[in-house]
Design brief:
The protein is α+β, with helices and mostly antiparallel strands. It is 20% helix and 27% strand. It is built from 8 helices and 19 strands. The strands form 3 sheets. Strands 1, 2, 4, 5, 7, 11 and 13 form a 7-stranded antiparallel beta sheet that branches. Strands 3, 6, 8, 9, 10, 12 and 14 form a 7-stranded antiparallel beta sheet that branches. The N terminus is likely disordered.
């Protein structure tokens, strides 16, 4: 996705005092983020980039031997790649400026990926900068855009773990959105992506009925505080991949919940999901929409999601399809998809078993038969 670069030595990352001769390094970014002025950070472009939805990332390119980036509030794990080689991750880094050095001279690409989920509050990235004597290089534009909407299965919840029990913060430390099926697919197609997903949320019911915004209620907003609606005219995904229903149906109804029977829950789920998909279609008239589901909950999730797609097709949406994905081990934290599961999901979405329309100019399909 970035320009070809020189071979790099193993990159190292250190927190440093801000050098006086820095100048901003233009960057590309992915994910929803609030951009606000940061006048005291002029060497980094003078802006803060605040995000709360998972899967955000920042990329830049330069010619030289060192690059800097600035971090604000960061209750997260950051993956830093230079020329596609990983530096040690930063875990809850202190606010400040970090230097990436140990590089050979020449052209390089640098990228910072947010790996963790941030439901408790947004985090801030402050951009890249280079010394005055180094050269800014252009980031190669990416033609394709894919959006992934869902719950913890889309977030990459606890995916790095090989066991179900993950106490004492191990879910957080083992969550890695970069290893989830969405970014895997995006890397395969050299696409920019958004991951608009929240663990524990459903279409009308959150996990075990806990009170919080459902995914459709949170989706229109830039941050989870719902103060500002998201609106980016440049975001025009060719494909939208959605998986929602695990939290609606994976637990029994509790006394006092809105729905008295499973049938009432089904009806509300179908009606709300159909409306949500219709709204997505209004804002993305040319996108292929793929709804997929696992075979969890004795097939209830898959059955209900399939009904929703059938209703949308009956309403005239011919660019929507359904994919049932079974055979997952759910070997990660709290019975979530494991690393092999994420690869399986990605493979099933990339290469379904029957000939289908292709994604962009690629000879490889992303969506199954309609």
């Amino acid at each position: 996705m970035l320009i070809p670069s020189a071979h790099a030595a193993t990159p190292a990352v250190h927190k440093v005092t801000v050098p006086s001769d820095l100048r901003p390094l233009p960057m590309s970014s992915g994910g929803r983020m609030l951009v606000t002025p940061a006048p005291s950070a002029a060497g980094f472009g003078g802006n803060d980039y605040t995000a709360q939805w998972p899967g955000t990332y920042f990329r830049a390119a330069f010619s030289g031997s060192t690059v800097f980036f600035r971090v604000g509030k960061s209750d997260e794990i950051l993956h830093i790649l230079v020329d596609d080689e990983a530096a040690p991750p930063l875990v809850k880094p202190e606010p400040g400026v970090y230097e990436v050095d140990g590089l050979s001279g020449g052209s390089h690409t640098v990228a910072v990926f947010v790996a963790t989920e941030s439901q408790d509050g947004p985090n801030t990235f402050g951009g890249f900068a280079i010394p005055a004597g180094e050269k800014v290089l252009a980031v190669q534009p990416v033609r394709r855009q894919i959006e992934f909407i869902g719950d913890s299965h889309t977030v990459g919840y606890g995916v790095l773990s090989s066991k179900h029990e993950c106490p004492n913060g191990q879910v957080w430390s083992n969550t890695d959105d970069t290893s989830a099926f969405g970014p895997i697919i995006a890397r395969h197609y050299h696409a920019d992506y958004q991951v608009n997903a929240i663990s524990g949320r459903g279409i009308v019911r959150n996990y075990n009925g806990f009170p919080a915004d459902t995914l459709p209620e949170a989706y229109p907003y830039l941050l989870l505080d719902k103060k500002k609606q998201y609106n980016d005219p440049a975001w025009k995904p060719s494909v939208i991949v959605i998986a929602l229903g695990t939290n609606d149906f994976s637990t029994p109804l509790n006394p006092g919940e809105h729905w008295k029977t499973r049938g009432e829950l089904h009806a509300d789920y179908e009606s709300t999901y159909v409306h949500f998909l219709a709204d997505l279609r209004t804002h993305n008239p040319k996108a292929d929409i793929v709804v997929w589901a696992t075979d969890m909950a004795d097939g209830e999730i898959s059955t209900e999601a399939h009904k929703v797609v059938q209703q949308r097709r009956q309403q005239g949406d011919t660019q929507i399809t359904f994919l049932d994905i079974g055979g997952l081990s759910f070997g990660a934290c709290d019975w979530h998809p494991s690393l092999p599961d994420e690869k399986l999901i990605a493979d099933r979405l990339i290469m379904p078993s029957t000939p289908v329309p292709t994604f962009g100019s690629s000879a490889e399909p992303l969506v199954p038969r309609r």
